[in-house]
Give the backbone structure.
Amino acid sequence: MVNELNESMDGKEVVLAGWVYEVRETAKITFLILRDSTGLVQVTAKRGEVDRSVINAMSLPKESVITVVGVLKKNREAKKGFEIIPKKVTDLNPLSRQIPFDVTGKVPAEIDVRLNYRYVDIRRLESTAIFNIESTILQSFRNFLIERKFKEIRSPTLVEAATEGGSDVFAVEYFERKAYLAQSPQFYKQFALVAGLDKVFMIVPVFRAEKSNTIYHLTEVTQMDIEIAFADDNDAIKLLGEMVVYIIKEVLKNNQEDLKTLNADLKVPEVKVITYTEAIAALNKKGAHMKFGDDISRVEEEKLQQIYGDGLIVKDYPREIKAFYSMPKEDDPRIAKGYDFIYKGLEISSGAQRIHLPEVLIESIKRKGLNPKDFEFYIDAFRYGAPPHAGWSIGLERFAMKITGAKNIRECSLFPRDRKRLLP
């Protein structure tokens, strides 16, 4: 791998494998830039010093997949401080089709064209950088929670009832009856706590049949979820703030080259916590005309960033705009113990203290205009000694979008699914 090479290996023979990023030829020298998932390295062949057959073998189309056997040599003029003097270049699979767009980015390509050939698009340095950062996000999420004695669990993708009680679900034929693709692992996180697992987390795909074509929405996304027993909303909010800061610090520590490739401006935010009422008042001072019960729109999330900075948790939402399983406040039943994390002007996380009392849950389901009988299996779980509990989820692609500076959430999904796209 390119990142395993360094100047201390001067004079040693190395073997590299990757793709041809670029070939430049002059009267005396042929330069081949080889790319693998870790970066670029220069292969330099001077006429009279390198066998002619090797130089000829370097005249390859961009994106040819090759191996290079050569000697590492210090060169202060090379970008990495060294270059490879080739002894052998092998084309492992000669191209049989033309590459559909310029992977170097010198000739821009529309995002739909790139997504049609996503397996080529991911070779772009920018795409590789995004997924390197996503890998760090996922590993950091796991490490943070494992260090705190959380248990990783899995939940089903096929469910009998729509988790949120809404219509934005994908129905599938399940033998002789209908099932749905899960909108959320919510019920199963809670069941795990009822079962006595205390602190759990999971990384799962979820599916939302939202007829949206915005740059912020996908029909399949990855959620990073946690749930903690014997906890309230404030406990979960504290953990959420700590988690976001931890992940950003890990990206800054491990992905500096990727951030440079993306020209991404990333800093550790100061996380502030305000109430929904405070948020509405602040927005109204800036010219908004919001009243209690209005949801906070994307435009208003961006305004809150301007007022409070990159890291903001808004809590104590009206019950009407939070899920039915959100616990109402004891001193004001109009308010749910729910909260959102708005990072760089975009909601990346949502959570709440959950209702663990069956009678309160039934009332809340009815309040949403839903039928408690449709959720009997869920309500029953809390009749067997369920502890108070709270949790949240972070949307991986949205979080990555803001960390990397990507302009479209599709850039942060390996093979994105939206209202129109099912391939590749």
Remarks:
- Residues 2-91 form a domain with the OB fold (Dihydrolipoamide Acetyltransferase, E2P) fold (CATH 2.40.50.140).
